[in-house]
C-alpha cells in the first residue's frame, strides 16, 4: 500500500505542480500587465537604439574592410523580427482598447501573456547584444596566417635555436619589434618563412595573433613615397582593404584605423633595404597598440638598430649543418667514396652560406664523374662563378645587391680592396685604412686621425651591410663567398678597380706571362710560398697596388721586376723574412704613396728614397736596419712613419725629423739604442726635433726614466696639448706591463725612483696614467700639489692605475681642489700599506664624483674602501667595486559600503516621494500631458517640413533627428497612451471606477508619459540643424606622427594654435619655418589631438598635403580639390574648375564647422578657385596652413606663427631619443653633444643623424660623423643626403632665378654662426657681376636688400642684427653641398672657420 501511495502521490504531484505554475504565471502576468507594457516599451526603445547605433558602426567598419560576423547579423535579424511583433501587438492592443468590455478585462486576457513573453525576448536580446568580442571583425575569408612554401629548418640546430628565440620574443609582452639581419643568402627569409608557417598551426604563440601579415619589401630604389605606397597596398590587400586615395596621409590613416581594430597582429617585413617610417605607412606604434608586433629582415644592422628593439644576427651554418644541407642539395652522389673528399672540399668553399651550398650542390646533383667535381672545386678556389646552373645569377648577383647599394663609389672601391687578402684572413683595420689612404680614397681628410676615423666608419658601414665581419677588436674578416663575389666584381665588372688576385693559394712562382692584361689596377700574390720573382714582366702601367707580403721564402726583389710597375702607389713586403736589401730602382717609383716593410726581420739596408716625393706611409717596423736610408729628409709628403722595434737602429741624423714637415703619426717605441734624453736630464736634439714637427698629432715613444726629471715649460705644455693621441712609456721597459686598454692618450711610468720638481707636462693632456713598481709616489704627488695653483686640475685623466707600491699616502700637503675631477676608473693592486682609498684621495683632493669602477687587489692592510670625514660625500656614478676577484657592489572597503548604503537610501526615498506626489498632482499632470503632446506634434511637423526642403539641396537627415522622429512617432502611437485614453473614458462613464481613479496605477503612468513628452520636446531643439552631410566621413582621421609632448617649445606652439582655434576672431592660421624644423609634425599632433572626444568643436577636420612645387597652377588646384572631395566622400567628375569649386563650396557650407589643414604649401593658393567658403559666408570654417615661406602666410592667413629650431636642452633630448642610450656613454657623450650642436636644433637633422648612429659604440664612428658634419658632408650612414639635404634643397630649387640662387650660394663661404654684413654681402654680389644691370650703387643696394628679403622669406637666411644676417648651420651645410658637388657654375671649396694651420 505504501508503494502504491507513493506512486499515486508522484503521479498526482507533477500535474498539480504544472497547474500551479501555469495559474501563478497567468495571475502574475495579469496583475503586472501595465508594468510589463511600460517595461517592454523601454526595453524596445533601448534595443532599437542599440541596433541603429550598431548599424552605423557596421557601415563604417565595412568601409574599413571589416566584416560583420554571422552572430551579429542574426542578432540584427532577431531585433527586426521582435520590433515587428511588438508593433503588431501594440496595434492589436490599441484597436481592442476602444472596446470598453475588452478594456475592463484587459489584464485578464491572453494579451498579458504575450506582453510578458515579448518582454522576456527583448531582455534576452538586450543581453545578447553586448558583443564583448566586438561587433565587427576581419572578413572570415581572410586567413589568420597564410602558409608560405619554404625549405624546412628542423634539421638545422642553429636555425632551430634562432626560431625558438624569435618565438620566445613573440610571446614576450616586453618585445614589440624584432630585427633579423645577416649577409645575403644566409637564410633570413627562410627563417621567417618557417616562423610564419609555424604560426599557421595551433599553438599558444600562434593563437595570440588575430592576423599575421607577410610583406616582401625589397625597397632598393630611392623613390621613397612610391616604395611606401607599395608597402601600404600590400598590407591593405592582405586585409582586403581598398586604398584608392592618392594622399599618403589618408592611406596611412585608413591603414592605421584598420590595424587598430585588430586585437593583435604580427607584421613581417622581409628584405628591408632602407629604414621605413612606420608612421608614414600607418602602422600603429607600440604605445598605441599594445598587441601589435613586427618582425623585419634585412642585410643592414643599422636598419635593425633604427627600427627595432631587439636584434638577431643570422650566422652561417657550422660544418656539420653545412654538410647535411649540401648532401640534401647534391643528393646521394655526394657521399660516394671517390667523390666525398671533393664534395666536402666544395662544401667548405661555400663557407656555411646556405644559398651557395644549395645552388652549388644542386648544380652537381647526379654528377658522378670525378673530373666534374675537381673542376668545380678549382673554379670555386679561383672565385669563378660559372659552375653549371648559372651560379652567377643565383648566388653572385643577389649578394652583389649589397655592394650596389653602398652609398658612393669611394666606399665601393674601399670594399673591393678587401678581396686582395686570402680566404679567412684576419685583415688588420689600421693596415686596411692605410691602403685606402695611399690609393687616394681618403685624400680629402685633413689629418691622419680623421683619416683613421673615416676609415673605421667605412668599415662599420661595410659591416652594417653584412659585407665585412668583425674578427676581433683590431681585425675584420671577409666571408669566403662575399670574397668570391668581390673578386668577381673587381675582375670582370669594375674596370676602374680591376684586380688580379692570387693570394693564399700556395703558389711557388709567378710566371712571366701572368700579367697578360694591362688593365689591372690591383695585384695580390700575398700569403704564398713564392721564392723568386720573375726578372722581367710586361709593363703594367695601370697597376697601383702590389701586395707581396707573407711570402716568407722570398729572397729578394729583382730590379727589372719593379720597373714594370712605375705607377705603383702601394707596395707591401711585410713578413718577407729572407729579404736583406731592396733594389736601387726604388728611387724611381715616383708615384709610390705607401711602402710597408713590417717584420722584414733580415732587412739590413734600405736604398735611397729621395725620389719618393709622394710617399705618405712608411712602415719599417721590426727590421734589422741600423741607419735610416739616404734622402729620408726629402720625404716631405710623409704623413705616417713607423720605426718601432728596430733594435739595431742607433742614430738618426740631425735635421731629418724636423724636415718631415707633414708628418702626423710617429711610432718610435722599443728602439733601445736611440737616446731622447741627455745624460744631464735635458731634452736631446732628437726629441726636440720630434716635438718641433708642427703637424705631429700622434706620438708613440719610449723614454728612459730621466724623462721624469724634465722641467715643465710653457712650450712643453702647449706641445703636449696639441697631441690628439700619444703613448709615452717611461722607465724600465722590462718592468712595463702589457696594457691592452685602447685609450687615446696614455702615460706608463715603470720602475721610476726619482722625480723632478715640475712634471705636470706628463699629465696635462693624459687620459690614462699607469704607475708600475715605482717609488716615492707620495713625494711626487706632493710636488704636483705644490704647483697646482699654477697648472690647475688634470681634467683629461679618466683612469689611474697603481701597481706594486710599498710607500704610504696621506701625509704631507693636501690639494685645495680635486686634481682629477673626471676620474672614472681606479685600479690599486699590491699596495702594501694602503688602509683605505681615502689615503690616496686626501693628498690629491679627490672627490670621486664621476668614479664608476673601483678595483682593489692584494692590499694586505686594507680595512675599508672609504673613510668617513673625508671630502668624498657621495659616489653617485659608481657602478662596480672589485675587491680581489669578488664583486662586492655590483582602507577602502568601509567607504565603498557606506557609499552603497547612501545610494540605496536615495533610491528608496525617490520611489516613495513619487508614489505620494503622483496621485496628488494627477489632474494637473493630465492637463500638462495634453498640452505637451500637442506642442510635440507641432514641432514634429515643423522638422519634417525642414527636412523636405533640405533634401532638395542634397542634404540628408542627421542621425539624431531621424532617431528623434522615430521616438515621437512611437510615442504618439504608444499603446499605453491609447489604453490610458480608453481607461479615462471608461472611468468617466463608470462612477465606481472614477472614485478609485487616484488610487490606481494611472497617476504613475500619467507622470511617466508627461516626463517622456517633455524630454522629447527638449531633445527636439537641434541647435546644429536637422539636416547635414553624409554621416560616414570620420570627423577627424588619426595620422601617425612622432609625439611632441616632451618638447617644451613644440608643446607651447601647439597650445598657442589650439588657443587660436578657439577664438572666434581668428579664422586662418599660418605656420612657417625652414624645411625640417617640425611644422608638419606639429600640425599632425594638432590633427590627432582633435580626434579625441574632448576636442569636438569641428564637425570635420580635413588634412591635405599640398606640396604645390610645380608651376601647373590649375593642375595643382585640381589635385587639392580632389583630395578635399575624397575626404568628404564627394564625387568630382567635372573638368571645369568652376563647377568643381561650386560643388565643394556647397558641400562645405553644409558643415556646421570645419577645419582645413593645408600642409606644405609652396605657392599662395586662391581658395575661392578651390571652392573654400570665405570668412563672410561661413563663420565657423577655419584653416591652418604650413609653409616655408613667410609671404605665403602673409597672403593667405590672418595670424602667423614662425617655428624656430629647438633649444639646446630639447635638441639633446630629441637626439638621445633618436640615437638611444649609446649617446650618454662616457666617451661618446661629448661627441654626441657636439654632433647635436652641429645639427643646430633642426629636428629633421637631429632625428636622421641620431638614428644613423643608433647602437654605434665605437668612438671613431662618432668622431668621423662629427668631422663629416663639420665639413658639411652628407654621407653619414642612413643616406642623410636623401633624408635631410634633398628636402631642404627644395627651398633652393624654387628660388625665382639663377641670379638669386648664385647669391644664396655665396653665403656658404662664411663660417658657421657668422654674422654676415648686408653691405659686404651685396658688394660681393656686385663684384661677381650678379647685379650689373642696375645703374647706380643705390639701385644695387636696393636690389641686394630685396634679394636678402627673398632669401629670408624662403627660410634660407635669418635676421641677426639690424644690419646682419645669418645662415643656419644645416642650411649652410646644404649650400656647401650644392655648391661643391651639384652646381658646376658655382663650384666652391669651403674651409672657413675650421681651425686650419
From TrEMBL:
Domain of life, per lineage: Eukaryota
Which SUPFAM superfamilies does this chain map to?
Answer: L domain-like, P-loop containing nucleoside triphosphate hydrolases
Provide this UniProt record's keywords sorted from A to Z: ATP-binding, Coiled coil, Leucine-rich repeat, Nucleotide-binding, Plant defense, Repeat
Residue span(s) of domain AAA+ ATPase: 174-320, 1065-1209
User: A single Gene Ontology molecular function, please?
Assistant: ATP binding
The alphabetized list of GO BP terms reads: defense response to virus
Q: Which residues form a coiled coil?
A: 37-99
Q: What InterPro entries does this protein map onto?
A: AAA+_ATPase, Apaf_helical, Leu-rich_rpt, LRR_dom_sf, NB-ARC, P-loop_NTPase, Plant_NBS-LRR, WH-like_DNA-bd_sf
The similarity comment for this entry is: Belongs to the disease resistance NB-LRR family.
Q: What is this protein called?
A: Disease resistance protein
Q: Which organism is it from?
A: Sesamum alatum
Amino acid at each position: 500500500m505504501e508503494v502504491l501511495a507513493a506512486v499515486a502521490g508522484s503521479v498526482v504531484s507533477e500535474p498539480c505542480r504544472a497547474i500551479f505554475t501555469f495559474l501563478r504565471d497567468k495571475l502574475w502576468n495579469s496583475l503586472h500587465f501595465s508594468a510589463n507594457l511600460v517595461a517592454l516599451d523601454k526595453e524596445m526603445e533601448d534595443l532599437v537604439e542599440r541596433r541603429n547605433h550598431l548599424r552605423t558602426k557596421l557601415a563604417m567598419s565595412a568601409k574599413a574592410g571589416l566584416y560583420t560576423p554571422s552572430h551579429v547579423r542574426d542578432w540584427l535579424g532577431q531585433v527586426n523580427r521582435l520590433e515587428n511583433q511588438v508593433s503588431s501587438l501594440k496595434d492589436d492592443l490599441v484597436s481592442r482598447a476602444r472596446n470598453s468590455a475588452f478594456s475592463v478585462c484587459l489584464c485578464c486576457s491572453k494579451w498579458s501573456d504575450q506582453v510578458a513573453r515579448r518582454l522576456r525576448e527583448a531582455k534576452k536580446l538586450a543581453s545578447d547584444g553586448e558583443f564583448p568580442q566586438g561587433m565587427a571583425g576581419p572578413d572570415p575569408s581572410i586567413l589568420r596566417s597564410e602558409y608560405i612554401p619554404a625549405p624546412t629548418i628542423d634539421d638545422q640546430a642553429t636555425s632551430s635555436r634562432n626560431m625558438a628565440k624569435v618565438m620566445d620574443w613573440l610571446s614576450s609582452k616586453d618585445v614589440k619589434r624584432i630585427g633579423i639581419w645577416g649577409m645575403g643568402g644566409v637564410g633570413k627569409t627562410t627563417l621567417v618563412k618557417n616562423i610564419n608557417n609555424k604560426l599557421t598551426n595551433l599553438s599558444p604563440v600562434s593563437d595570440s595573433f588575430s592576423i599575421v601579415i607577410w610583406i616582401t619589401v625589397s625597397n632598393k630604389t630611392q623613390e621613397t613615397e612610391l616604395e611606401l605606397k607599395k608597402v601600404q597596398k600590400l598590407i591593405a590587400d592582405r586585409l582586403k582593404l581598398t586604398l584608392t586615395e592618392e594622399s599618403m596621409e589618408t592611406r596611412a590613416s585608413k591603414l592605421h584605423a584598420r590595424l587598430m581594430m585588430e586585437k593583435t597582429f604580427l607584421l613581417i617585413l622581409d628584405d628591408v633595404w632602407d629604414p621605413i617610417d612606420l608612421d608614414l605607412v600607418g602602422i600603429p606604434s607600440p604605445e598605441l597598440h599594445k598587441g601589435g608586433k613586427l618582425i623585419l629582415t634585412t642585410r643592414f644592422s643599422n636598419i635593425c638598430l633604427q627600427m627595432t628593439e631587439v636584434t638577431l644576427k643570422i650566422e652561417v651554418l657550422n660544418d656539420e649543418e653545412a654538410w647535411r644541407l649540401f648532401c640534401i642539395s647534391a643528393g646521394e652522389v655526394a657521399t660516394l667514396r671517390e667523390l666525398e673528399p671533393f664534395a666536402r672540399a666544395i662544401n667548405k668553399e661555400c663557407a656555411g652560406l646556405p644559398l651557395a651550398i644549395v645552388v652549388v650542390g644542386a648544380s652537381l646533383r647526379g654528377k658522378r664523374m670525378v673530373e666534374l667535381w675537381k673542376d668545380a672545386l678549382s673554379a670555386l678556389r679561383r672565385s669563378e662563378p660559372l659552375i653549371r646552373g648559372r651560379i652567377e645569377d643565383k648566388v653572385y648577383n643577389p649578394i652583389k645587391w649589397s655592394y650596389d647599394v653602398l652609398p658612393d663609389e669611394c666606399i665601393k672601391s674601399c670594399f673591393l680592396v678587401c678581396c686582395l687578402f686570402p680566404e679567412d684572413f684576419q685583415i688588420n683595420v689600421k693596415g686596411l685604412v692605410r691602403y685606402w689612404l695611399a690609393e687616394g680614397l681618403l685624400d680629402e681628410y685633413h689629418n691622419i686621425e680623421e683619416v683613421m676615423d673615416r676609415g673605421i666608419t667605412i668599415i662599420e658601414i661595410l659591416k652594417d651591410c653584412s659585407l665585412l665581419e668583425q674578427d676581433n677588436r683590431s681585425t675584420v674578416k671577409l666571408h669566403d663567398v662575399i670574397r668570391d663575389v668581390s673578386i668577381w666584381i673587381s675582375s670582370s665588372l669594375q674596370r676602374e678597380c680591376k684586380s688580379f688576385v692570387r693570394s693564399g693559394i700556395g703558389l711557388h712562382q709567378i710566371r712571366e706571362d701572368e700579367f697578360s692584361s694591362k688593365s689591372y689596377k690591383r695585384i695580390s700574390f700575398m700569403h704564398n710560398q713564392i721564392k723568386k720573382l720573375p726578372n722581367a714582366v710586361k709593363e703594367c702601367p695601370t697597376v697601383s697596388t702590389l701586395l707581396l707580403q707573407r711570402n716568407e721564402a722570398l729572397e729578394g726583389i729583382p730590379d727589372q721586376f719593379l720597373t714594370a710597375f712605375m705607377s705603383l702607389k702601394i707596395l707591401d713586403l711585410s713578413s718577407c723574412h729572407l729579404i736583406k736589401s731592396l733594389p736601387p730602382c726604388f728611387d724611381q717609383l715616383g708615384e709610390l704613396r705607401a711602402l710597408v716593410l713590417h717584420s722584414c726581420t733580415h732587412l739590413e739596408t734600405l736604398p735611397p728614397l729621395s725620389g719618393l716625393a709622394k710617399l705618405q706611409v712608411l712602415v719599417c717596423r721590426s727590421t734589422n736596419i741600423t741607419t735610416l736610408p739616404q734622402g729620408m729628409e726629402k720625404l716631405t709628403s710623409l704623413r705616417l712613419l713607423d720605426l718601432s722595434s728596430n733594435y739595431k737602429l742607433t742614430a738618426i741624423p740631425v735635421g731629418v725629423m724636423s724636415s718631415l714637415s707633414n708628418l702626423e703619426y710617429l711610432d718610435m717605441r722599443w728602439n733601445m739604442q736611440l737616446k731622447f734624453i741627455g745624460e744631464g736630464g735635458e731634452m736631446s736634439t732628437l726629441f726636440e726635433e720630434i716635438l718641433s714637427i708642427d703637424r705631429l698629432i700622434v706620438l708613440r715613444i719610449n723614454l728612459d726614466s730621466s724623462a721624469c726629471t724634465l722641467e715643465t715649460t710653457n712650450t712643453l705644455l702647449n706641445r703636449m696639448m696639441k697631441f690628439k693621441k700619444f703613448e709615452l712609456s717611461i722607465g724600465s721597459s722590462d718592468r712595463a706591463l702589457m696594457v691592452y686598454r685602447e685609450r687615446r692618450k696614455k702615460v706608463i711610468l715603470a720602475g721610476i725612483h726619482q722625480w723632478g720638481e715640475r712634471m705636470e707636462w706628463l699629465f696635462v693632456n693624459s687620459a690614462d696614467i699607469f704607475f708600475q713598481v715605482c717609488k716615492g709616489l707620495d713625494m711626487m704627488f706632493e710636488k704636483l700639489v705644490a704647483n697646482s695653483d699654477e697648472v690647475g686640475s688634470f681634467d683629461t685623466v679618466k683612469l689611474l692605475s697603481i701597481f706594486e707600491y710599498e710607500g704610504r699616502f696621506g701625509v704631507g700637503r693636501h690639494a685645495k681642489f680635486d686634481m682629477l675631477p673626471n676620474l672614472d676608473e681606479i685600479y690599486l693592486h699590491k699596495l702594501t700599506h694602503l688602509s683605505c682609498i681615502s689615503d690616496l684621495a686626501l693628498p690629491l683632493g679627490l672627490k670621486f664624483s664621476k668614479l664608476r669602477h673601483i678595483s682593489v687587489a692584494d692590499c694586505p692592510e686594507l680595512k675599508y674602501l672609504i673613510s668617513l670625514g673625508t671630502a668624498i660625500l657621495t659616489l653617485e656614478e659608481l657602478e662596480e667595486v672589485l675587491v680581489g676577484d669578488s664583486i662586492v657592489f655590483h582602507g577602502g572597503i568601509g567607504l565603498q559600503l557606506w557609499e552603497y548604503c547612501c545610494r540605496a537610501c536615495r533610491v528608496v526615498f525617490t520611489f516613495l516621494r513619487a508614489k505620494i506626489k503622483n496621485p496628488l498632482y494627477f489632474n494637473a499632470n493630465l492637463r500638462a500631458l495634453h498640452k505637451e503632446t500637442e506642442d510635440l506634434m507641432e514641432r514634429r511637423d515643423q522638422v519634417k517640413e525642414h527636412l523636405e526642403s533640405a533634401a532638395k539641396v542634397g542634404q540628408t537627415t542627421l542621425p539624431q533627428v531621424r532617431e528623434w522622429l522615430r521616438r515621437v512617432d512611437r510615442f504618439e502611437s504608444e499603446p499605453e497612451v491609447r489604453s490610458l485614453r480608453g481607461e479615462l473614458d471608461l472611468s468617466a462613464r463608470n462612477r465606481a471606477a472614477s472614485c478609485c481613479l487616484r488610487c490606481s496605477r494611472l497617476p504613475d503612468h500619467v507622470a511617466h508619459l508627461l516626463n517622456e513628452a517633455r524630454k522629447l520636446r527638449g531633445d527636439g531643439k537641434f541647435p546644429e540643424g536637422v539636416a547635414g552631410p553624409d554621416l560616414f566621413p570620420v570627423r577627424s582621421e588619426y595620422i601617425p606622427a612622432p609625439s611632441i609632448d616632451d618638447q617644451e617649445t613644440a608643446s607651447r606652439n601647439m597650445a598657442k594654435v589650439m588657443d587660436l582655434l578657439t577664438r572666434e576672431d581668428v579664422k586662418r592660421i599660418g605656420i612657417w619655418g625652414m624645411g625640417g624644423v617640425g611644422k608638419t609634425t606639429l600640425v599632425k599632433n594638432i590633427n590627432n589631438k582633435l580626434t579625441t572626444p574632448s576636442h569636438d568643436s569641428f564637425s570635420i577636420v580635413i588634412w591635405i598635403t599640398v606640396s604645390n612645387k610645380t608651376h601647373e597652377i590649375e593642375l595643382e588646384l585640381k589635385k587639392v580639390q580632389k583630395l578635399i572631395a575624397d575626404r568628404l566622400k564627394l564625387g568630382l567628375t567635372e573638368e571645369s574648375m568652376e563647377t568643381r569649386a561650386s560643388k565643394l563650396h556647397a558641400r562645405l557650407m553644409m558643415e556646421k564647422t570645419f577645419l582645413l589643414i593645408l600642409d606644405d604649401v609652396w605657392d599662395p593658393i586662391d581658395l575661392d578657385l578651390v571652392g573654400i567658403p570665405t570668412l563672410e559666408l561661413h563663420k565657423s570654417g577655419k584653416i591652418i596652413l604650413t609653409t616655408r615661406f613667410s609671404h605665403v602666410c602673409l597672403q593667405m592667413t590672418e595670424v602667423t606663427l614662425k617655428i624656430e629650431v629647438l633649444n639646446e636642452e630639447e635638441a639633446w633630448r630629441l637626439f638621445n631619443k633618436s640615437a638611444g642610450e649609446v649617446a650618454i656613454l662616457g666617451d661618446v657623450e661629448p661627441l654626441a653633444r657636439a654632433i647635436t650642436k652641429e645639427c643646430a636644433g633642426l629636428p629633421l637633422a637631429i632625428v636622421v643623424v641620431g638614428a644613423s648612429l643608433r647602437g654605434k659604440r665605437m668612438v671613431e664612428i662618432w668622431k668621423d660623423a662629427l668631422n663629416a658634419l663639420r665639413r658639411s658632408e652628407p654621407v653619414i650612414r642612413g643616406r642623410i643626403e636623401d633624408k635631410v639635404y634633398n628636402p631642404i634643397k627644395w627651398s633652393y630649387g624654387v628660388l625665382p632665378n639663377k641670379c638669386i640662387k648664385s647669391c644664396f650660394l655665396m653665403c656658404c663661404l662664411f663660417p658657421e654662426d657668422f654674422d654676415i654684413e648686408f653691405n659686404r654681402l651685396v658688394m660681393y654680389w656686385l663684384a661677381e657681376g650678379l647685379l650689373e644691370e642696375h645703374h647706380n650703387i643705390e639701385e644695387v643696394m636696393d636690389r641686394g636688400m630685396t634679394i636678402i628679403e627673398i632669401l629670408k622669406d624662403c627660410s634660407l637666411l635669418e635676421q641677426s642684427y639690424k644690419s646682419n644676417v645669418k645662415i643656419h648651420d644645416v642650411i649652410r651645410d646644404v649650400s656647401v653641398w650644392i655648391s661643391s658637388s651639384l652646381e658646376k657654375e658655382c663650384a666652391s671649396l669651403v674651409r672657413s672657420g675650421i681651425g686650419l694651420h
